[in-house]
Amino acid sequence: MKWMRMLAIAASTFCAAFVAATPPAVAQQRGGTMVIALSGEPSALVGFLHTDTGGHSIAANIFSGLVGLNEDFEPVPELARSWEVSDDGLTYTFHLDPNARFHDGVPVTAEDVAFTFNDVVAKYHPSRGSWWPNVESATAEDEHTFVMKLKKPFPPLLTLLAYQLRSGAEILPKHIYEGSDPMTNPANEHPIGSGAFKFVEWSKGSHVVLERNDDYFMEGKPYLDRLIFQFIPDPNTRILAFERGEVDFIDYTAVPHNEVARLAKDPRFKLLTGADAIAVQGMWLLNVRKGPLAKKEVRQALAYAIDVNDISEKALFGAGRPAHSFLNSNLKWAFNGSYDVYDRDVEKANQLLDEAGYPRGGDGTRFTINILWAAGRPYDGKSAEIIRDQLRDVGVNADVKTYDRPTFIEKVFDQWDFDTAMQLYSTGPDPAISVVTRYHTKQINHSPFTNAMGYSNPELDKIFDEDASEVSEEKRKENWDEAQKILMQDLPAIPVFEFPDGHLANARLMDAVTGPYGYFQSRHNAWFKD
């Protein structure tokens, strides 16, 4: 259909094709345990409670979505075996696999899907405000037919549903959650989904264990017996465990970049690289609610005071690229890095700070801010330290503070108790999905990875809202050109680096990454070669 073709064309334009492992020449072998190292312990294992990648790397194996994406960014079946989109782009009809069952044996029906969207996603998911208001209805037409109707066309909808981190479209069992407060339901600690692996154990502070689901609706899968997610915040300990064979996979957010070149040459390991759908940026978030950071001129001064080239080189050991926009340059159709590129200019930074009403005091200091970062991600810590050192040249004192990841998320996104913070932000596979949720006024809420900065610009909101239903790629390019211009002038955050892709894996591990969301995808395809 026209809309399906449009989605496929758009998706292939958003990012280059993902380079995955070559399909195996021999039959997949069964058995074995895949150990995955995470840089920190997630706060939850169910997707509607958060948008944290660590939690989703586990949840993606427990729960199933309606659709997924293949390595060519095309929608592929999961719980929905097939679907149709109306010619006007407003009605999506999904036909569910009748063999799908939850881990307790109860069949998955369209009622479960409707309940997930209407009673959980629509009320609790952190990113719901960026897309759910456009949903007219989400209903079960019969036992295995689910229909979603939109108020206005939204071409990236299938891509959004496949991006479960952002949509929350991991289907929950209605019979377990109905009549309860989903936020406090005991099943959040012992989740029951319909995915390839069943929950076994969550040993707080240590690991999560999942085991093979023998009744998985994808026939013959998964191949592995179990998955273990090991929480290893210290990067040196993490890489040592990998070299000892105690860990089989480290996703690209947890890879110690100073070790990549050495390990990639070791025949025991392999580096899985390619264009990643998420198009991640390292961002320096600025709380614009009060104090010096409430003034745009001060934020611009801070951008002139730092050297993103130096930060990118040192924090990522040359593996990343300096960022010059709120979009990653991998999003070639939308990226524009020509607006207000803040090359380091200490003189201009000092001038802006003087004009903003923040002169140096007797000790040479203008004001003090904090920089928060989450333990387990050394590139964020190194970035914070470099920024602190560079800000001294303009009389700004920075206090660098480190927290474990759950505490960091609570302070920054729930309590808004920060001046500035280091955080990775996705900008793909479509900025209408990922970027809007960071900077739209409606996304100022106490939820993880939304607009914690308190930033609001009605002109930008209007562009975001109009772009959501725009089908012309030329017009969408114009929209995002203007959006980047506004963001680079207002600076609710400062783009620092474009994050490199590249997952480290045991050389025997096959098909660990088979799609564009490689670091939080289901491992139903993964297997070990003798």
Automatic annotation (TrEMBL):
Compartment annotation: Periplasm
Residues spanning the signal sequence: 1-27
InterPro entries, from UniProt?
A: Peptide/Ni-bd (IPR030678), SBP_5 (IPR039424), SBP_5_dom (IPR000914)
What highest taxon heads this organism's lineage? Bacteria
Keywords attached to this Swiss-Prot or TrEMBL record, sorted alphabetically, are: Signal, Transport
Q: Does the keyword Signal apply?
A: yes
Report domain Solute-binding protein family positions: 74-441
Can you tell me which family this protein belongs to?
A: Belongs to the bacterial solute-binding protein 5 family.
Report what the protein is called. Answer: Peptide/nickel transport system substrate-binding protein
Which organism does this record belong to? Rhodopseudomonas julia
